[in-house]
## 1
Amino acid sequence: MELVYNIQLDSGAKYKARGPDNLNLRVDDWCVIRKDFYLDYGKVLEIGGEIPQDANKSDMPRIQRKASVFDQSKANENGMRSKSAFRTAIQLVEKNKLPMKLLNAHYSFDGKLIVIQFTADGRVDFRELVKQLSQALATRIELRQIGVRDETAIHGGIAVCGRALCCCSFLKEFSSINVRMAKDQDLSLTPSTISGLCGRLKCCLKYEHDGYLELEKSMPRRGDVCECKEGRGRIVDRNLLTQRVVVNLEDTGRCVACAKDEVTVTYPEKYKISAHQNREAEEAISEDVKRLEG
């Protein structure tokens, strides 16, 4: 019986591999993997279920064995070679004046391939760089461009919530995120508030979005005129999580906090922002916020 394993390389790259269950691999064990034309060396992050009989196994890398002491020694040597290759690559990038930021270099276990990860604002013509690297390092070169979210997942860090970044702990795939999600959650559109360490919109805006939409269904909106036990007023603020609103009283100008069930909306349209004003507010969103959607 073959199982699916999530493998992580020393460069931070991850992929799925298959292997027989009699290897007795556990999480954090290192192993040797056959991938395409070369052997790779990685760590087991997670052990999945059994591979279906009708699944296409030909394209999935296959784990050959659990790493021995000799394999670990050879992998350490490859790690030293990777650092040297990375320094050479940086020198050639600077020489060719290419607009790219190199992140790391990874030698395959058998030394047949070097994978170099980099980030760039756009597409980069690195054909000449690949030729120069092949000549300097005498092996096959693969340059792989990744996004800033993937870069942050590799380096890791602590988020503002005090926990490890989602992208390097449990989040497996990056979904499309937009500013509308922040608006639906009543968050400030200040870039520093809704952006993560990667400089893009926080990933948690996506997987919490459906919950906020559900909470918002029964909540009155800002600007609605309402009645509460203190009197008549207008809703000036609300908290979706606590299901409470802040009412500005007409008579005294005082603001009071109430549970949503304690207020009755009387004129929901009276203080709504006009369509023209709404467009002006949309245009006032800074370019920094738009960039966060990238």
## 2
Amino acid sequence: MDTSWVWLWVPVTILASALQTGRNAIQKGLTEQLGTLGATQVRFVFGLPFAGVFLMLALWLTGSDLPGVNWPFLAFVLTGALAQIAATALMLAAMRLRDFVVVTVWTKTEPVQLALVGFLVLGDTLSLWAVIAISTATLGVVWMAYRPRVSSALDPTTNWRPIVLGLAAAGAFAVAAVGFRGAILELPQGNFLVRASWTLVCGLLIQAVLLALWLAWREPGVWQRCLNAWRISLWGGFLGAAASQGWFVGFALTSAANVRTLALVEVFFAQLLARKLFKGHTTFSEKVGMTLIVLGVGALLWVQA
């Protein structure tokens, strides 16, 4: 790979974070109408055609052929696809119990889990300073999520359940990221953009087929509701596919832990969106947490540079 493109993981990750915030907001709205699984499948079924367009553009821009497929590639893609389905469903289930920003924050404990999984599975090593940077940014996330409550906070149905769901979603997202990066690395040598785009199409195809079969068997009525909401579902699919394209390009260029740590800027986008759509506000604890995130992300970029 031409090392002159390595820096590209930074802007595409920031763009993917912004796009994913919009997709999460759309899926949160669709959850009430379609249920958790219905809103989850929007990301995959409606995102697949857009991913196909991105792949064709990548082939045209680079003049490349489709990469080959081998068994390790398929194993990694399948692992990533299944983990991402579980992660999205867990995240949306948590959003039904707590507000948009808090759930986004809990899912952003992913980088620490991801650094460990990436090291164990792919051998992605990180320097001591990179580990400190990731830990600092993640501490900022946890700090933001801590919100002392009055007596209603003692109600387990409004307290521990969304936390457990959010942390479980973060773990599943970490497994998915490692699976997809592993798939990209298993492809024969070729242009990073094509390998990332091809992996995205394969992953979305697996996810769309699996969810379509499940919904047809268990909840056939969801399909009609999805078709009735096709306009907003198309936007959800586009934003989801575009965000994933950014993640996968980042995975092709650097470790998944680096990509997902920089992706913590999504917390800032979620704050802005919450103010606009959900009438949220920023507390002192959230400001302290965001400062730690900025320090951690800035330190990571400095270490990588």
## 3
Amino acid sequence: MKRTMNKINDNAVIGIVTTILIVGLIVIVISMIQIVYVPIIMEQREAEHMDRVAEQFGFLTSVIDNQANYGKKGIPIASFITLGSKELPMLVSSKAYGTLEVLEDSCSIIIQNNSITNTYPIGAIKYSSVNAYYLDQSYTYEGGAMIVSQYQGNKIMVKPGFFVDYNRSSSIVNISFDVVNISSIGHKTIATGYGTYGLQTEYNNISINMFFMNVFNVTIESHFSNAWFAFIDGSLRDAGLNSETNPSQFVLTDFGQSLKLNFSSNLTVNINLKIIEMQVQIGPGWVK
């Protein structure tokens, strides 16, 4: 009888130990998944979401450009931006959030010639991510350009309507700059979260269409001055202008949030500036 009771006790202890080992193994496996694999999976999901936002913002850019070129009032078009991504089910992870907003007067274009200095404030549309695992990025539609920004810097992904024609024999430079100005309607200017939000755009009018002669200075005040620097410098060089000759034909300086373009007095520079007004609303419906 005593031997039987000892055998029962041994079996019970073995069962308890086995259960503890199994539970411990499960905890170890779950911990490994949580510590090692969840960050990798979530980083990949957030990277894929950033790629998706890039595609959506690129589509939004093409919609606005088409509306601006077509110039038809009274036809609002909806585009959609996915602000974030959800967490993994059954495991501890964090959501990725985002913000979509209309920024009034986010930058300015200043043109100076011999007789006048004109300043034109320009609005923008901006998406900003708040990722938990992947590198944060922002996408901005500013002045007709689509700009991607990270902590290392920013770059123009879709070019604006900026064209340079340089006649070497006459030293005349003609620049055409079609600028899209974004303004809000109905006070629906911001959305934050992780869902998909609609953004409606509509052509309004052409507020400015002016021809400036004998321009010697152009300034762009923008948070993305280095993106504008690279684009404008490349556009001028592609047209045949050179900043390295003696004397230089132009001097382009980036002051951090201000970009200044100075032309040589040996050039005759004319700029045709067109500002196209677009109205934008975030959210459903269309307010008039």
